[in-house]
Design brief:
The chain has 189 residues and is an alpha+beta fold. It is built from three helices and ten strands. 23% of the residues lie in helices and 30% in strands. The longest helix is centred in the N-terminal third of the chain and has 19 residues. The relative contact order is 0.26.
Length: 189
């Protein structure tokens, strides 16, 4: 989890929001419970270059921390998610990638979390009642996020987004990362 510095956050968000408004121009307004998703090539647009630099820096730092040996990495997909009030995103994973991530452009109270679910399918077989829910006995981890938050996580980790309980749109940029040699030989996921 990383937080963009205030000056970087402002510049990135202004550019991203302006480009997304342009991409959505002429389309219908989202109704309660609806979502809009862009195509997966936003990382190739010049308006997204500062965000791509931040994503690459965070991924490089994480891969160094994990001591992963690699010949470079590439963003294999980068898209916008716009969730109207009432919209949610069911549990899913991002196969054929090493890392996935999300950058939060616009969040407000009532739309400021992401859930990561326990990947061990057998844990649900015996689930006794508990007195107090803690990080040690929960089947999911809920992460609080805000504008400028950049999260990276294993692409195999199932995640979801609860219903947007605010009155404003929640806007995030999702992305996937794979090692360059895999991305070139396997194609973009």
């Amino acid at each position: 989890k990383a937080e963009l510095a205030a000056e970087q956050l402002k510049a990135v968000n202004l550019a991203v929001l302006a480009k997304l408004a342009d991409l959505r121009k002429g389309g219908p307004d989202l109704k309660k419970g609806e979502s809009w998703q862009s195509d997966q090539s936003l990382d190739r647009l010049p308006e997204f270059a500062p965000l791509v630099l931040a994503i690459n820096a965070a991924a490089d730092e994480l891969l160094r921390h994990l001591t992963v040996v690699h010949q470079g990495f590439a963003i294999t997909g980068c898209w916008a998610n716009v969730n109207a009030p009432g919209a949610k995103h069911s549990g899913h994973m991002h196969p054929n990638n090493f890392l996935s991530g999300v950058y939060y452009v616009q969040t407000v109270e009532g739309a400021a979390t992401i859930n990561f679910h326990d990947p061990r399918s057998q844990t649900g077989i015996v689930r006794p009642p508990i007195r107090v829910l803690t990080a040690d006995n929960a089947d999911q981890v809920v992460i609080q996020i805000g504008e400028g938050t950049l999260l990276l996580f294993p692409a195999w980790l199932q995640h979801s987004v609860d219903e947007n309980r605010s009155a404003a749109e929640r806007i995030s940029i999702g992305f996937n990362i794979m090692f360059s040699d895999y991305a070139e030989t396997m194609g973009r996921p």
